[in-house]
Amino acid sequence: MLDQGAAPPATEPTVPKATVLSALTRRKPVETLVEEGGQGEGGSLRRSLSMWQLTMISIGATLGTGIFVVLGEAVPEAGPAVTLAFVFAGLTALFSALSYAELAGTIPVAGSSYSYAYATMGELVAWVCGWCLLLEYGVSIAAVAVGWGDYLNELLDGTLGVTLPTALSAPPGDGGIFNLPALIVVLLAMVFLLGGAKESARANTIMVAVKIGALVLFCAIGFMGFKSGNYSDFMPLGPGSVGAAGAILFFSYIGFDAASTAGEEAKNPKRDLPRAIMLSLVIVTALYVLVSAVAVGAWDWKKFAGSEATLAAIMNDVTGQSFWGTLLAAGAVISIASVVLTVLYGQTRILFAMSRDGLVPKVFGKVHVKTGTPRVNTVIVSVFCGLLAAVVPLGELVNATSIGTLFAFALVNVAVVVLRYTRRDMERSFKVPFGPLFPALGFLFCGYSMYTLDLVTWKVFGGWMAVGLVFYFLYGMRRSRLASAEK
To answer: In angstroms, rounded to a whole number, what is the distance separating the alpha carbons of residues 243 and 78?
Structure first.
């Protein structure tokens, strides 16, 4: 029997009944998001990135493994009309890019679509969006790192006549023990990022210049073997084939949003972020169309089926020498390294923003005073992604990056419309033309692309979302800074 004067027994703190509803409705004001820009635990991010460097970040994240391998998948779907399929995919991405450009100029912060959702649709939707981004960025880093090892082996074989043993270049389950190259490229990207945003942006700019040069070289050599007869039947598989190939090629555009994660390190974010996003999309689309047009002109489209390393094979076929294919492999090694660098950068900045809001542990929001970078955050993310690439066979999990990206894109298209109607008075450095029409089209295109993904991808996505919601209700909802302010 309890003593009347004794204190009641300790109990677990309870969450007020209104908290779940509050999580759906509480929003972080745009002014607060912008005011907090750059601020972290113990230091601040530094505004050092120019418009050109921001553009290179988006190009670096977008222009990677896609163009080096995607033709082997897309050309058999559309034939020579694959050039139109690239344009179709680019237009599909354009609608979402316009929404990103408006929000990036209006809310120039590190959280990208996570922060945009927080300001417009509430904390729970923002968490779901941020959780999708963690899946997109984390798994894609690992997947791209695995691809880097493949091209490294091709380069070593062409230059030195040796390759790394399978035991050290593939994870368990894929015939190996430990994928050492995948871990190495992630750790190299980590070293650049620890040096500071400006320094890593310079390195990325050099790598982007190299990979653009490699693609231009391919076009110059491929044009030497151009045969107009390869275009005699431009659409052999019918008009519907353009849309089918476009759905495949859309995923080659994922990454144009990377500049939006640099909102707190841009010198003039309101002006430069919209320009960088749109310019990067234009440059990437132009390169894709040019490369695909030359590739089909040099090779009969039926030869693409089942072909790997298509661009290198075309160069070797046109010149009759393996040297050019080896040179292109060197370009691919540098190209993929820049993707790892820029995507890893985006991952750390999104976690930085979520940490500042209290939804993930504070350690991800600590900024080093000397370098102005979230050092601990960068190390943790790099080691995790590096080990994921080195020891885990990704398989179908890679496709989950696409569905996570599309979901985030869809939310951004909704967010731009919501903010238009709830904050008409806000100053906007860029506005999506034709009111809600383009964002609506962007939403529909994203929804259609998600619909085309297979059942396994949806199951992985559903499992990831379930884990995320459990984490949010057990940790994020209780520790949110907005929740603390409500008490």
So the answer is: 8
